[in-house]
Write a structure and sequence with these properties.
175 residues; alpha+beta; six-stranded antiparallel β-sheet; three-stranded antiparallel β-sheet; 29% strand; globular
Length: 175
């Protein structure tokens, strides 16, 4: 008998890891038709693994028909919310006062809150900024300027929300 005697063991371990990973992903096995949900699925694993840190900007109407918007730390929300309900269409992902930054357009209510991944810098001459706590990089959400090192801005056309933009920050090694 020639070859590596551990090939079968490694193959079994890889299959088991793949099975566990698919159970951990809220999007596993879902066929999604909306661009926004597909965009979240594309980023789910990398956000869970800490390779990517996405900020989702959503502007929409809440259950009281008030216009609200927020910058949401996707990786953090993945740990606090049941995203299977969002991916299956049972719930809508909506802004909350506990997100990085929240604004109720009808009541003129503003709030901001840091997350485990981001510090909110609201008093900047550059406007609203977010500082990634792992690598210290700044994410600038002003659509007129460069979003920052290792960061991309992606507008998403969707029927689920009035306005969606996703900022993807690839986690670096440090400042």
């Amino acid at each position: 008998m020639s070859g590596d005697p551990y090939v079968g063991i490694r193959r079994g371990a890889l299959e088991q890891e793949s099975c566990i990973r698919s159970r951990l992903l809220a999007s596993a096995g879902k066929e999604l038709k909306d661009n926004f949900l597909r965009a979240l699925v594309e980023r789910e694993e990398a956000n869970r693994d800490g390779k990517l840190s996405s900020i989702i900007y959503i502007r929409d109407y809440n259950s009281r028909h008030q216009e609200v918007s927020a910058y949401i730390d996707y990786a953090y929300r993945l740990t606090t919310d049941d995203f299977e309900a969002y991916f299956s269409g049972k719930k809508r992902l909506l802004p909350r006062k506990t997100d990085l930054s929240f604004y109720n357009w009808n009541k003129n209510v503003v709030s901001s809150k840091p997350s485990p991944n981001y510090k909110v810098i609201a008093e900047s001459a550059c406007g609203l900024l977010f500082k990634n706590k792992r690598d210290g990089k700044i994410i600038n959400v002003n659509p007129e300027v460069y979003p920052g090192d290792n960061t991309t801005r992606t507008p998403v056309k969707t029927d689920l929300c009035f306005h969606v933009v996703i900022y993807d920050h690839i986690i670096g090694r440090g400042p």
